[in-house]
């Protein structure tokens, strides 16, 4: 049985789908300007941290254009699927699609919270590049 189809090895989402009112700042930001939350999550998932992040990035613009045409659920579905596969979370593509179509803001907030929590756990160790060892004589 392949890993992609097996849900026995998958972990549960740490944040519920309807836990979107907490924290309030994320809820307000996503309700008013979902493209910023989408872009922030995309940046964190692909770069491992928010170092160098700008709120008006290419992902934000893509989401805004999709939303202009009523297709905001498409990038939200793609992002949720990517996060689910990257962090081995429960679910399926069909579930991602249905949730994104039902409540895009809830999906964006859940994606952001999961990527923030799980991304921090999976960041690789970064050595101090300024460290210099004395040469042996």
From TrEMBL:
Q: Name one Pfam family in it.
A: PLAC8
What is the official name of this protein in its record? PLAC8 family protein
Give the organism's phylogenetic lineage.
Answer: Eukaryota, Fungi, Dikarya, Ascomycota, Pezizomycotina
């Amino acid at each position: 049985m392949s890993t992609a189809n097996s849900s026995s090895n998958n972990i549960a989402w740490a944040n519920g789908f309807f836990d979107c009112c907490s924290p309030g700042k994320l809820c307000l930001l996503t309700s008013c300007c979902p493209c910023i939350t989408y872009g922030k999550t995309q940046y964190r998932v692909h770069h491992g941290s928010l170092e160098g992040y700008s709120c008006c990035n290419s992902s934000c613009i893509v989401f805004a254009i999709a939303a202009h045409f009523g297709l905001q659920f498409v990038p939200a579905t793609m992002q949720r699927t990517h996060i689910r596969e990257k962090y081995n979370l429960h679910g399926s593509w069909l579930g991602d699609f249905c949730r994104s179509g039902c409540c895009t803001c809830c999906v964006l907030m859940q994606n952001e919270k999961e990527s923030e929590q799980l991304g921090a756990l999976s960041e690789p160790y970064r050595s101090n590049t300024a460290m210099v060892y004395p040469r042996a004589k």
